[in-house]
Amino acid sequence: MYALLSVSDKEGIVPFAKGLQDLGYKILSTGGTLKILKQQGINALDVSAYTGSPELFDGRVKTLHPKIHGGILYRRDHALDSQQAKDQGIKPISLVCVNLYPFKATTQATQDFNTIIENIDIGGPSLIRASAKNFQHVLIITDKNDYTPTLQRLQDQTDTLDFRQAMMIKAFEHTAQYDCYIANYMNERFCDGFGEQLFLTAKRTTQTRYGENPHQKGALYAFNDFYQNKLKILKGQASFNNFTDINAALKITTSFQDAPAVCIIKHGNPCGFAIKDNIFDSYIHALKCDPVSAYGGVAAFNAPIDVSLAQEIQKTYLEVLIAPFFTPQALEIFERKKRIKLFTCGEKDRLVFPKDTMDFKHIEGGVLYQEADTITPDELTQAKLMSTIAASKSELADLEIAYKIAALTKSNCVVYVKDSVLIAIGMGMTSRVDAARSALQKASDMGLSTTGAVLASEAFFPFRDSIDMAAQAGIKAIIEPGGSIRDDEVITSANEHHIALYFTGVRHFLH
To answer: Half-sphere exposure (CA, 13 Å, Cβ side) for 164?
Structure first.
């Protein structure tokens, strides 16, 4: 019986081939795989010698031959297939192990189109698809992590149909993902990323207990290896809603790079944020914004959590904590708290987070696809002063915090910040005036003074009433995109109330 091995990623292929050879398989191989196998003393046969046809066109044609594909595809339990194979001298190939040319890695390493084209695998996908189609008779292996369990099953004679079916599904997923990468790359290169077809590929990273609600199934699928390699669950099981809240918390917190920022999220919305001299003080001030909403929330810490901070966190109930790491003493404290969930997601002393360049939203029957929204440094440094009075240095720092939070929160949204602390926020409202009024009422309920604070809005204020309201609340500076037909009235109101007003020219709706 024959096994065909032809892999681009050669990790683990030598012991796998030795194991197959010990089980009585005759090894067929090509190119670099063949060379490595022979160097390691494995009696592998060149596919060209087996078929009697040389490799052609710099290796573009190697395995595309009836003796190869016929040996894979003929149905062993069909008498006519078996007779035709015998008449044509086609011998059965019982196992195929293939992984594909590194197309994605090549596109990340070079822009040379000829090099990229030559890393589009042809023979490999054909071998995989043929083997997967005939999985009842041919075992197809595409993942190096399956080498050891495959050998064990062959040795134990537990190479069941269920196992072959699982490998078949994995094989079709492998080629489907590969083709999606190619199609998406070509659309990015030649169609500005918006071709006639859109392909989303993601790998299941973890199953959640359920979806948003207990009657829904749910799982996390990842576009790359970020969640597998960077996000670690130290305690508890993440729910579907935990992941969406973690996403919101990390997007905001990592927008401030090395600052010891703390962001508290509840139901996808920020209810606390602060940047102070250290992470302990940042947490204390972040919690003041809305400790009622923070109860049972998700908190992201852009610095390690030590024992003193852990002791402080213990005084309230946060369901999820995510930080670069936890000290052993901090972990001991949290170990005694049953309902808390702990995650790490960092490099050195700071949180990390992937920044996708494209974004999509599901609607019934399809998806809306767009470039991801980003806040560029120029929006803040080049924001245009529209009022007669300018903001102070500390007010400008607060405006940056408020503007970033507003841009990353559901519209309509207004954000009030004072001394690098979020003191009020109104989000997801149908009216910007209602958002402002709701935020100010919440600040009053929490006993927080807005006098001397700054205000940010992710879209323009359509009327001067929001500016008048801000003046009554003691706001000293405002940042917004501008662009209303009544901008002149807004500017006039700001000047009347001696408020510094800046326009960025960039709207950040988030629906």
So the answer is: 18
